[in-house]
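RETRY 2/3 - previous attempt timed out on the joint model. Re-submitting the same 1186-residue input unchanged.
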Amino acid sequence: MRTLFAATLATFTAFAATAEPDPTNWDAVTDEARGQTVYWNAWGGSDTINSFIDWIGMRVNEEYGVTLEHVKLSDTAEAVSRVVAEKTAGKDEGGAVDMIWLNGENFAAMKRQDLLFGPWVEATPSWANVDVAGKPAVISDFTVPTDGLEAPWGMAQVVFYYDTARLETPPKTMADLAAWAAENPGRFTYPQPPNFLGGTFLKQALIEFVPDASVLQSPVDEADYDAATKDLWAFMEDLTPNLWRSGRAYPQNESRQIQLMADGEIDVAISFNPNEASNAIANLELQDSVRTYVMDAGSIGNASFVAIPYNANAKAGAMVVANFIMSPEAQAMMQDPEVWGLSTVLDLNKLSDEDRMRFDSLELGIATLPPAELGATLSEPHPSWMVKLEEDWTDRFGVAQ
Amino acid sequence: MPDTGLSLESVVIRQDGRTLVDISDHIAPGEVLTVMGPSGSGKSTLLSYVIGTLSDDFAASGRVILNGRDITDLAPEQRRVGILFQDELLFPHLSVGENLAFGLRATVKGRAERKSQIEAALDDIGLNGFASRDPETLSGGQKARVALMRMLLSGPQALLLDEPFSRLDTERRDQVRSLVFDRARAKGLPVLLVTHDHADAEAAGGRVHRLSD
Amino acid sequence: MAATCESHSARARFLPWAPLLTVAIMVGPVAAGVLGTLTPAFGFLPALGGHSLNLQAFAMLFDWPGITRASILSVTTGFVATCLSLLVVSMICAAWSGSRAFRVIERALSPLLSVPHAAAAFGLAFLIAPSGWVARAGSPWLTGWDTPPDILILQDPYGVSLIAGLVVKEVPFLLLMTLAALSQIRTVQARQTAMALGYSPVSGWFKTVFPRVYAQIRLPVYAVLAFSMTVIDVALILGPTTPPTLAVQILRWMNDPDLSLRFVASAAAVWQLLLVIGALLIWRVGEYSVARIGRRWVMSGHRGGATRSVRVLSLSAAGLSASAVVFGLLGLFIWSIAGFWSFPDFLPQGFSTRTWMRHSMALWPTISETLIIASVSTLIALLFTLACLEAEERHGLKPSTRALWLLYVPLIVPQIAFLTGLQTLAIFTGVDGNRTAVIAMHIIFVLPYVFLSLADPFRAWDARYGYVARALGASCDGVLWRVRLPMLLRPILTAAAVGFAVSIGQFLPTLLAGAGRVQTLTTEAVALASGGDRRVISVYALTQTAVAFLPFAIALILPAILWRNRKGLRHA
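RETRY 2/3 succeeded.
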């Protein structure tokens, strides 16, 4: 036991000898990154995304000599737990997690607990092309400022998809949705909160039903919560008995809904990726009669980020990988509907002609709406609203009667 | 006590305060001592004591001397005492020849030499060419002969018999019994026979020690 | 004096310590882990700002609206699943013992042991879902359904489909344990005596054999009860969601971005442990009641009848559970090669090997990683087991029933109750995030199963072979290596297969000890399963099953080949 201790101490001191990489000295970062292995903890439930991550790995290896390992998670929180466990055990260096795909509540929690390395994002070369002005969500995650602690890599926007073979005109307002569900019970559902997308459905509905939208920008305890959400909960009480399985069971994440629609169990579903339906159709997972649409009230948008834990082992390598992900080459590849179809975080105007061409030549998927039809993004409410909504939802609907 | 043969000096075996065996005797080379008693009287425990595998459930004392060597405290494999049980206990995972090879002393070296000794042994008991046979395919009498040969090949200095003939039918029993006693006599081995069958005792032709109830 | 063994080698000197070491391996980590989980439950976790001991976490736990339902659910699903499995197994043994059909039933149910729980659950889920295969088979010509009916079959709030998923795997396991117990009791005489006295075979069996058998399988039954109450992967697939079972909810809290919920998760893990202990106590009390009723039944002298109906019932139950697994796997196979497949098509519209091709690259390293971990942990477990058993033999260390309980500790204490604590310890000592850590974790769970599989056959070996061998000049070691182990080849291979299957199916231990750096088929499968694409899920579930089945196949084939010329060992 003593020898083990001594060995551990020795290893730790060896790590302490290496200083933290300074993002402003990008050449030094690239040099340090060469030969490192970066363990990127990212959700592994989608073949599409996994393939894209594999491609990134191949490219960073070619360009920078960095080996990328995709640690497939069933839930982002597994990685967060890992970092917390390491902090508990006092392992402040050489951590097992080098980079995490996260946003929203996970990010807010890690930031609050000082579990992230940085700031580093704004020092990366690719940052110059990011559309900060046009896409405020890239520096404000759930209204929590990113402070350069996480790098945006994809834009998400709430869309709905439906089976045109079974439904001619889909409901474009929440009220219409409730009415349609009353006539066609059991054909709509959403992921169970506290799943991120499920919570977003609640937020989307809240935005439509709240009397005064400005209160959502401030913390929930500063507003009259009951007055603001009265109509929302009335709507939910109305809707829930007409949900799939009468609201006594829910799919646990967004991808399960695809299987439900393919099985013919539901007709309408919510998604964060405007290209998800096209992708699924191309993968033979969904019938080709499915199409996407947005609600009249607009849709909530946000960004997906990657962050580096405070005790990551390969910080330089992680920064290099993040930088590559934000590069025009990777962003165009990502936006390609045949690959993934997630929207880019870059401002196309800031790119060179050559790089802009990559984007212009992309074709839309069969079920994807052109950008014009996607409409403007609504801004996210303050994160404390989400927490309260999810708690309230669990109290009212979390235990089936 | 004389220098040759098997001597049992005040061998007392008890269980739960009850005395099962109390014997002091000497068996000369080639002689057979028959120990008789009803079932459950503990006669097999005497044999266990002599070969050194007596369970801790029993309390035992007394010395066992074989050809002048006190073997009481030796490990079983060092005692040079052979034993035959009711069941032939031929190792099922080894062929007949391999079973015999197991018994053949390691002092016999060289594959060729060992092989020829085994062949000779098989010949001796009339089982020519049986070396690669599965022991399970042999008849009861054949198995008994192989078991005997296996034991003799290990060069024992004494022979213990734990009712080894009771499983055989009458015809075989006579054959095998005579074979065993003849060989023992030929090699000058003291034999300790435990049985409840009077016919065995008669065929042995030696002294009989009866265990009290 | 007992047969002494010459102990010159270092190995021999290690032998008397083997039992103690084995117990330490199984109980030590569990105890340490439970402690590591207890402290956050009472509010102490400095990394997250918990600096004082308090009961806040427990207050929050009992504030959760679903706590009563989830707790009751855990207990009831556990009880019903265990009772049902026990009933089915007893009926099979009572009705078919000694008949030729029994061997067939045994042969048919044993391979099911190798199917990992999650794979069986996935298969079952596809079979019984309203949009599943059974519904598709009958639609629309029989049922008139164009779209799947909105019936809550899967994830129903009473946990019925969860119970079904548990029973199909527990029946083969309990059957195996019961068969091992039966071989030690003189059942033939008991049954014949009972029948001679006029009792029907079934009631005769229940009155004469069952009490003795149950005494032997009591601990496996407890393990089944604890497992049913705390299982996570099967509950995720088949169990209710509003609210989920307590074990699943603990996982949710553990995974919640709100880090303060970690405390609640730890408190819930402690509560889970208490529930398991409580359930075991209730079961124990139940045993007494059943025994009293049973005794009254015996005294009544009622001869019983109804053998035919029990025969039919038990055979149908066995057939049903076996078909559920087999057809489930078949369904998974078709999904893995399916193009688009919608309701109510009985077969997919088109086939494609695309999913297999896409994953074949990733599969091979994962398979080899899984195999390496399983082989090493099983090998070490086997070594310890054999060392223990041989030590028992040589030094007369007879294990009491108390010691047997210790064997079951890792199986009865819920994994989630001690794994997080253990993870902290692992990180602290720096032995984590690599294969060695995962293997070490796996050994804790593999060892009990290997021991249980091997102990009875090892002890039941006829010691007289040993006496003969020693009289022929073989040393103690010689007896072990040249006689005993070769004769026990089949039980050893079977125990190894069981250990393999256990290691392959481990999810939480691999995840926590491996820090995501060690990917096995199960961790990959669960991550991919979160995506919901049945094709991908099927590829991994089937691969998992195939890899787990391989050692069982070897355990069947190798002895058959080696002993093809050795009738004495053919039916060992």
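Chain C touches chain B through 33 residues (CB under 8 Å). Closing ticket.
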